[in-house]
Amino acid sequence: MPFILRIASYISKAFDNIYLKLKFSVRNSNPKIRIAKSAWIDPTAVLNPEFGWIEIGKHSTVNEFCALHGAGGIRIGNGVRIGCHTVIHSVQHHFERLDVPIWKQGTHAEPIVIEDDVWIGANCTILGGVTIGAHSIVGAHSLVTKDIPPYSVAHGAPAKVLRSRRDDVKRSASNSGSDFES
Fold it and tell me: φ and ψ at 50, to 5 degrees?
């Protein structure tokens, strides 16, 4: 088995409800998956390098029920937050021919790069061949099919850049004066 999560659980009682708490450690015996020691991967996440690779940087998190399929390669930078139920899929089917079933037309794989300090909301899908620039935010339920520049806020299906976070900082700095008299 290429990726093994060892789970130790215990139950605690609070407010007459029972909660299941999980503690786990990662033992990775697959050289195609590289995870920084300070990264956190939820035990329900699926990491499948297939014939490619997956790299996850320091202090990054992959949350509940995420699926990473790294046939084309997936590089996740440092300090990245990936919301639950997100799919990062670096391989796609060919479908150009109508006389051949899709499953017989083969696939093509392209790498995905998620640079440092990116926040990806829940239920996003990120397809092969894209780079999400450093310090960007991808809103929940987005479909990322094209590159997103650094410092962007993007959302939608397909995801479109709504604004630059740098503009937010400029507005904040120009409004930093007090609204109150002393």
Answer: 50, -120
